[in-house]
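Hey, resending since the last one bounced:
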Amino acid sequence: MSSRRQFVRLAAGAASAAAARVSPASGASGADDRAYWVEVLRRLAAPLLTRLAKRRLKADMPVELSPSGSDAQRRYTHLEAFGRLLAGIAPWLEVSLAPSPERELRDELAGLARQGLAAATDLRSPDFMNFNEGRQPVVDAAFLAYGILRAPRALWRELDATTRSNVVAALRSTRVIRTSFNNHLLFSAMVEAWLCMAGEDWDPMRVDYAVRAHELWYKGDGVYGDGPEFHWDYYNSFVIQPMLLDVLETALAREPASDRTRQWSEMLKPVRARAARYAAILERLISPEGTYPPIGRSLAYRFGAFQLLGQMALRHELPSGTTPAQVRCALTAVIRRSIEAAGTFDSEGWLRIGLAGHQPGLGEGYISTGSLYLCSTGLLPLGLPPTDPFWSSAPADWTARRLWRGENLPADAALPSEKR
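The structure tokens again:
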């Protein structure tokens, strides 16, 4: 048996053992949790990357549409699947790992991802993806760019020159799309920030417009509106706060000092503080059972709702009083509740619409099979090495578990108002 197959078998065993425990914090080690997360990542990534590397994704990937969807979604679903998957698994593709079966699996999937980037952006490929027809492609081109931004070695510097040129051309082609006046502004901004990172010509005005609009849409206590209006949903984590952080930081790292960059620098401090507060809220939303309130649209993105919490763990910027171990255990509980529900995958290993199992009624008109791979962004902490406290610390219960068993904890507090 190869070491990679042995790792997969061991990971599956860890997943089975974890599922049998009454409490995720009752004895699961960080190594067990990491093996489980890697197995989840493998289940998500392997069917997609294997087909795309062979240039058979469009031929082989089933496309489930929501009851209110239309065949138009088939034009977008393949870029959705690939871009969203890369945005989530990129930190793991980039992390330094000691020789191990996990590293062998990582290297294999990274190679498939690079082949996938070639297949997705080569005009002659049967899997060449739609980057500029309709309004949706800018969304998932941005997630694709985000994945490369999060793994500049594995997904950019190790590409051949032809593929790099094709990726630049594909992402630039999204500029013809007029974005909506809401979180979609950040998708255009992310594409431009990525072009900036890659040393290509970029448009700072698209970044400036997006970050200034979101500053105007800040509602208080760590929460932004999705456009001028407030919505009860998880878009602060699906898109808004993660992209705000990385767009600003990427642009500031490359753009020469100017009045504009000084204003961006002034924005960054409150953006970070708001992200820490929203991460604290997300952690508190995880129930003792590993569920969370099914509020708002796009619930079929599953544990992608916790992208920001994972991102703050990855950045070592968790809010005060929130430990890496409690976040690891809380997220493990959430992932288990969603990914292990019957009907989550079809017989070929593809995701199906739902939050906990197959629930097509939860799919809005824009949801299709490709959309669902945003859940991979809930796995960002795999970008931390196994020796990091996130993985090496002893198990710990999270806030809701501790409070509901009667533990005496400090009261929660809102983020202080800012002078506007």
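The chain is about 55% helix and 0% strand.

Sorry for the duplicate.
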